[in-house]
## 1
Amino acid sequence: MSATRDAKLNSGVLRLGWVSFLSDVASDMIFPLLPDFLTRTLKAGPAAVGAIEGVAEATSSLMKVVSGAWSDRARRRKPLIVAGYSIAALARPLIGFAASWTEVLVIRFTDRIGKGIRTSPRDALLADLVAPESRGRAFGLQRAMDNAGAVVGPLLAAGLLKFAFEDERSVFLLAAVPGLAAVALLAFAVKEPPKARRDAATPRPAAGPLPRRLRMAIGIFVLFTLASSTDAFLILRASDAGVALWQLPLLWAFFNGVKAVAGVPGGALADRVGHVPAIVAGWTVYAVSYVGFAFVSTPAPIWGWFGFYALFYGLTEGAERALVADLAPPRLRGKAFGAFHASVGLASLPASILFGLWWKAFGPRSAFLIGASIAVAATVALLAFRSRSGPLRAVEERESAPI
C-alpha cells in the first residue's frame, strides 16, 4: 500500500471520526436533559421514560441487522450512512416541540431508526478504509471522537441553560446545528473506496451464513453484555454514595473525557498485543470496577472508580469491532457488524432490567457483584475461544487479502 494511499485512508478515518464527534455533540445536548424534561415538563412517569428508551434501543439494534446486510449488497455504503445520520439529525431537535411523552416516543423511535441505519455500514466502511493491522487504531479513534462529543455535548447544554436559556426546548432545537454539520461533513468530505476494490479479495457471494468462529465470538459478547447493564446505575450508585446533584453532570463529563482519551491508545494497544488480549484486559477492568462499585460508600472514591471504569471502554470498544472485522469475510462485513450490534444491543435490555430488579430485591452490592461474576465468566469463555481458534489475524489473511 503506497504512502499516498495511506494518507488518503488516514484522512478518511479522521473525517469519519469528526462526523461521530459532531453527531454525539448533538445527541448529548439532548439526552442528559431528556429524563427531567419528560418527568417535570411533560409530567410523564418513570414507566414512560423506560418505555421510550426500551423502544429506542430495540429499534436501533434491529435496524443494524438490516442495514449491515443491505450495505454488503449495495454498490456503495456511504448513501446508507448519510441517510442514517440525516434522519437522526432532523428528528432529534423535534423534541423541542413535543407536547406529550408519546410524541417524544415517536421522535426517539425515528432517531434510533437513523442510528440503526448508519452504524453497521459506517463500521464496515471504516474497516474498508484501513488495512487489518490498523483496525484497532481506526476503531479506537472513532470511539474516542464519539466519546469526546459525549463530553462536549452535555457541557455545551449546561452552559446554554446557565447563561442563555431558561428551559430545555431551546437547547433541543439548537442541537440541529452540530447534527446537520455532521451530515454535511460526511456527504462532502468522506470518500468511499469502490466496491470493486473491497470485493476483489474474494469471489464469494454476499449471501450466506456468517462464519462459525464469528458466531461464537458474538455469542461470547452477548454473555458479557448480560453483565453490562446501563451506566445509569453507576450514576445512581454515585448519588447513593453522597455525590451532590450538581456534581453528577461533571462526573459524567469526566467519565466520557477519560473514555475519549483512552480510545486511541487502547486501539493501538490492541493492534500491538492482539484484539482478544485487549478485550480480555478491558473485561477484567470491568469486573474489578464492578467490585469497587459494590463496596464504595463515600463520594471521593467514586471519581477514581469512574475513571478506572472508563478504561474498559478504551480497551474494548475498538478491539471488539476490529475482532468482528477480522473474523468476517469482506463481502459479509456489513452483515457481520449488523449481527454484532443487534445481538449486543438486544442483550443489553434484559441485562439492565434484571440488574434493576436484583438491585431492588437484594441491594446494589449484590447486583454489582453478580455483574462482575458474569464478566469473569465471559472473559474465561473468550480465552478458551482464543486458545481453540489460534492466531485470528493470520486466519483472516488466508481468507482474504487486505483491502
## 2
Amino acid sequence: MGEKPNQSGLSRRHILQQIKGSLKCLQMDHVDLYQIHRWDYATPIEETLRILDDIVHQGQAYYVGASSMWAWQFLKALNTSDRLGLARFVSMQNHYNLLYREEELEMIPLCKQEGVGLIPWSLLAKGFLSGKYGRGEDAKSVRYESDKLLRERFFKPEDFDVVEAVQTVAKEKDASPAQVAIAWLLHKGVTAPIIGVRNVGQLEDAVGALEVKLSEDDAKRLEAGYKPHAVIGHE
C-alpha cells in the first residue's frame, strides 16, 4: 500500500492493521475469505500463518487464501499450516487463462491434489481474449499504445491463433468470445473466476458464460495454438 516498511508485506503488524481497515471500510464484522497478496520474502511464513490463524479464530475471516507464487512456496505454506495446526489456505488466486497456461505445470496439479480452490485473475488476458485486437496494424489502439504490459505479454502470432480459435467456437455456440474464454476456465475445473467489469453489460456477458457448455473437442481446439510463455505474476 506504500513505499514505507510498514506499508507492505505479510508481517503480523501489517495484516492486523489491514484486516481492521478492510472491515471498517466494508462496514462488516467479518469477511468470508481473506487473501494474502503474493509471497513476502522478508517475513517468515510461520509469522504470517499464525496471524492469519488468529484472524480466523477471532471470527474476522472464515477462511484464508493465497495468490500468485511459486508452487514450492505454496506447498511450504500448506505443510507449515499442517505442522503447526494452523488454518490452511483454501484458495489460490493465480494467473490463468487461455493465453497463459503455465500454472498447469505445477500450481494447478498441486491445488487439485491438496483440495484447494482456484480463483484465477486476468481471465481475458487484459481483454485480448475478447477479440478486440487484430493482427498487424489492426492491433493498434489507445490501450495498446498506453499499456506496456499488454503490449509485451501478448500480440505474438500464436496468441492470435488462440484468439481466432476462441472466435470460431464462440460463433458456433452463439456466444461472445469472452463467454467462451470464461467457459473454458470452468471446463478446466476453476472454482470461481475473478471477473473485472466496467459496466452492467460486461457483467451480464460474463454471467452468460455459465450457459456455454464446451466439449472435450471444443477445449482441444481452443488449446491447440498455445505455446509456452515466460512466467508472469509471481513477482
## 3
Amino acid sequence: MASLIYGVNLIAVGLRSYIGWCYASHHHRLTTHDLSEELVESVKNRILVAPVAALFSIGLSFFNLRLSELCYLLVVPYYILPGRIDKFWKQRTIPHGD
C-alpha cells in the first residue's frame, strides 16, 4: 500500500511539474528567449521520467515489492546528475570577482 501511495504522489508531483514547465516555456512566457525548442522538449521529457517510472513501479509492486522499490531508487540518480538544462544555465553564469 505504501508503494502505491508513494507512486501516486510521484505521479501527481511529476505531472504538476510538467504542466508548470509547459506553461512557463510556452512562447517563453517565464523563460529566457534563448532557450531552444529542442531544450524545452528535452526538459519536458526529463520531467516525465519520474511519473512514468512510478507508474511502472506501481504495477510492479503487485508482483514483486523489492523490484518496485529498486525501480523507485533508480530514478534518484537520474535527477541528481545534471541534465541539459543544468548545463545550459551553467554556461550562462557570469563569473564575479569574489
## 4
Amino acid sequence: MSLFVWMVLGAGGGWLASRLMKDSGYGEMAEIALGVVGGVAGGIVTGLVLGMNTASGFNVETLGGAVLGAIMAIVLSRVYKRTRANA
C-alpha cells in the first residue's frame, strides 16, 4: 500500500513541481513520471528521516516527501541534461 500511495502522491507532486518550476522543457507527462520516481524516493527518505511509516495514508508528511522528492528529481534531471548538452 505504501508504494502505491507514494506513486500517486509522486504523480501529483510531479505535476505540482512542474507548475512551481516553470519552463523545464520536458513536458507534463515526463515530469509526472519524474514525480513518481521522486515521490517514491522522497517517501522512502522521509520515512527514514522521520523514523515512522509516512505512507499510512494521505497526510502532510507523505505529501511533503513526495513533492520534495519530485522537485529534487526534476532538478537533478535538469542538471544532468545541462551537463550532457555541454559535454
